[in-house]
User: Fold this.
Amino acid sequence: MNSGPDNISRRGFLRAGGAAAALLTVRPLAAQEDGVRRYAISAGAATHRLGQEGAPATDLWLYDGVSPGPMIRARRGETLEVVFTNNLDVPTTMHWHGIRNLNEMDGVPDLTQAAVEPAESFTYRFPLRDAGTFWYHAHSKGWEQLARGLYGALIVEEDDAPDSANDITLVVDDWRLTEAYALHEESFGSLMDWSHQGRLGNWLTVNGATEPVIDAAAGTARLRMINAANARTLAFRLDGGRPLRVIALDGAPCAPFEIDVIRLAPAQRADLLVELDGEMMTIEEVSTGEPITAAQLKTGAQLKSGAQPKSGGRALSPHVPAAQSWYSFPDQAGARIIDIHMQGGAMGNLDSAIFEGESLPLRELAQNHSKLWAFNGIVGGYDNWLGDVALGEVVVLRVWNDTRWEHGMHLHGHHFWVRSQEFGDEPRDVLRDTYLMAPGERAELVFVADNPGAWLFHCHMMEHHAAGMGAVISIG
Ligand code: C2O
Ligand code: CU
Assistant:
């Protein structure tokens, strides 16, 4: 094979340096009145070239025809209004990942809203209570719709944000492509994927492009990294092993720390400060053990005015949160404990589970229903309620990953505190919305249930979620 997608597993395929600067499509600022940012976004079939120049384009489903979908930027405290139109021929919804949203705007079909049918529209409108790096994605058959490209970045700026100087958003995805650069459609729904790691791709893109070269100004840069992959936990480092200074995780500021390699589970984000001193800096993806180039940042270029990032000749003044008094776990005295025993998948210990009220052996669940995972012996669905919690209660999700696989556990509508084991030997107390659990790990996810509604808790490896790894917590 001398061509065709395989940049993740075969180093030999890589070319040195992409040619064109690939920049995110930035949504022009919509008319803003009364602190409301108004946008119109549609989902539809579109083609987009994922490979290098000259590679054929791929048929995808995209927001506004671009991959990733248009970047939405707003300010904390504003209201975001998106009039969404579904030009696909299947139902879909938009979910605003990491936003402490109004429940009816959360975009979970059959739970918080009816799916938006083909040719129909739905207006999402909600306040942006937190600054940070968020993203949006389809939440209907996510295992297929994300893999086809339905996602984009949502950046909420701090009140005193610098003028976007060297503020660089990198949306990373792995695609599963055929040798002709078509989406590998036959493997949608593959039980092999669903019972193992999920759908892993063979082609890595950053901002929808292969090895993009992105213009930056010398000095400090804030990288906002978003893992939009269905299932692959990505890992990044800078060439030369230069340190990455982590200042926020999943949109929430953290006590800053330095790390050489940042791992991001699907849906996780990290805001990193890096020093751009040389002419070119390479960001490598190293999750497979064979480093490949993800993107390059090129400094010294004359940035055209109006180009992203806006350098204005001035480097970003790093927004490192000062030690903040709110930055600690909530008091857990009298907290509501919810135990979640995760089982299933290949090589697991789940023999049978309850599905739609009936106890079925795993083999039958797999073959007849494509279900493979369970919480507390129940195959997840919107009828699987983990508990009714009173508004304002402190909740401890005591989660036990009793499987042979990693899982990126995501709670809707809230961030939770966790003593994270994700950063090497030292546990770190961090606030996140998605937590990557190692096989066998037990973790406590602690949050104040201050946002009323029916909220999903699920694995963000899309195939695991579809195959049963999800349930609902009702608040208020
Ligand atoms: Cu990124 Cu249920 O969501
Ligand atoms: Cu999982």
